[in-house]
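Input/output pair, single chain:
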Amino acid sequence: MYSFRLIYIFFYNLFQFCGHTWILANTIARFLTFGKDALADTFYSVGFVMSLCQLLSILEIFHIADGIERARLLPRFIQVMEKNILLMMVIMLEEIQSKPVVCVQFFLWNIMDLLRYPHELLSVMERPSIAMLWSRYSLWIPVYILSVANEGVIVYQALPYLEQSASHSAYIHLPFLMMLYLSLLTVGAPVTVWQLLKERKHHLDKWYKRKKKK
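Output:
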């Protein structure tokens, strides 16, 4: 008999996997159909689904804290906050939504999540795969580093628009917050990578020990 917690985490991971699969398929199909013109329209075509997936990802912090998911809390917290803060800024600034870097960022986020959620689904089903395990904890790290670098580029390109909006709106604190976000990103990313490398070693060593016992 499956518990409610197990059914919940299974359908959560399935929803995220389906959502990111749809976003990636939509993005690739539009690029193949419209070429470079599709880059400027990425946010308008997939922004709602991406926003929904990233908003729901906040639940993962509670999953780890409650013990539903076994993972390190600090790197996941940094990752979730990075994505949601950046996405809020993109939503608020229409001028940045059509930038190619936003399309690149969505693509990298999708690659990261499509490396992670299939592994999570297999783990919940107790059918782990060494290929998915290795991809989740090895390929994920360089993609995350690229994502962080691209996030910095987005914020840098957005700063002039933030300053303009702050001069005649209630968002006068936004440029400062974004600079603070860049500082946190600079400090948080190396800590996250370090934690992820430790997590990778732990899971791969655990897998190899299990195989040797068999």
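The mean pLDDT is 84. The chain is about 85% helix and 0% strand.
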